[in-house]
Design goal:
The structure is a single chain. By secondary structure, this protein is α/β, with parallel strands linked by helices. The chain has two domains: about 170 residues, Zn-dependent exopeptidases (Aminopeptidase, 3-Layer(aba) Sandwich); about 45 residues, no CATH class. About 45% of the residues lie in helices and about 20% in strands. The strands form two sheets. Strands 4-1-5-8-6-7 form a six-stranded mixed beta sheet, with helices on both faces. It has a two-stranded antiparallel sheet with strand order 2-3. Helix 3 crosses helix 6. The chain is elongated and about 70 Å long. The structure holds zinc ion. Zinc ion binds next to loops.
């Protein structure tokens, strides 16, 4: 099972960039949590650097991911510039990391496809601490400019769409098929959801009638299907 580390940039005493009555730390956290929720439908483990408005040191963000042995590291940020005309989407990876570049490209392309951006600034490399210190392929997405009026509206009003496209980009990189949020994926008890999706993915069950009692026929059929899995 893949472990995906989602890093909401800034937090607590570090507001990140501010502009147009928005604080970067709030946008980053909101989008990061939404990305995580979407990913969790896909039989992956999601680990966050923070899930609330708290300050986390840069070095700690990478070391939490390293200790958890995460497979990929994705940091979510909003951009800022003195020039309020500056706008658009860009995604960074660490210089000379082929997998990082691939991950950055998957995320950038997915957001471009969703059309939730004003200008394509492309994928770039940068010597950011979180990219440098994380042991796994990593990318840092700057969703839009908080200092630009047009971009700030995207950051304020299009968080669900942004989160969906970031999540789809991550799934693309991991070669996991995107599962639509439906009544089907929602009908399982929260505690059973991960297991049910795992069982469906392996072909042990089609996931129907999840709350029916288990009969001898059902249990033997599941065991039989399991015995065929290499
Ligand atoms: Zn930032």
């Amino acid at each position: 099972m893949y472990k995906i580390f989602i890093d909401a940039g800034h937090g607590g005493k570090d507001s990140g960039a501010v502009g147009n009555r928005l604080q970067e730390k709030d946008i980053n956290l909101s989008v990061a949590l939404k990305v995580g929720e979407i990913l969790k439908r896909h039989n992956v483990e999601v680990i966050y650097s923070r899930t609330t408005d708290v300050f986390v040191e840069l070095a700690d963000r990478a070391s939490i991911a390293n200790k958890a042995n995460a497979d990929i590291f994705v940091s979510i940020h909003s951009n800022a510039a003195d020039n309020i005309a500056a706008k658009g989407l860009e995604t960074f990876s660490y210089p000379n990391s082929a997998k990082g570049t691939d991950l950055a490209k998957c995320i950038q392309d997915s957001i471009l496809q969703s059309k939730i951006y004003t200008s394509n600034r492309g994928i770039k490399t940068a010597n950011f601490a979180v990219l440098r210190q994380s042991n796994m392929p990593s990318a840092l997405v700057e969703l839009a400019f908080i200092t630009n009026v047009e971009d700030s509206k995207i950051l304020r009003d299009k968080q669900n769409e942004l989160a969906l496209s970031v999540a789809k980009g991550i799934l693309d990189y991991l070669k996991i098929n995107y599962i639509e949020e439906t009544k089907e994926t929602n009908k399982y008890s929260p505690w059973a959801r991960e297991g049910m999706l795992w069982g469906i993915d392996l072909g042990l069950t089609d996931g129907s009638n999840p709350k029916e009692p288990i009969t001898l026929e059902r249990v033997i059929t599941i065991l039989h299907r399991m015995s065929k899995i290499k």
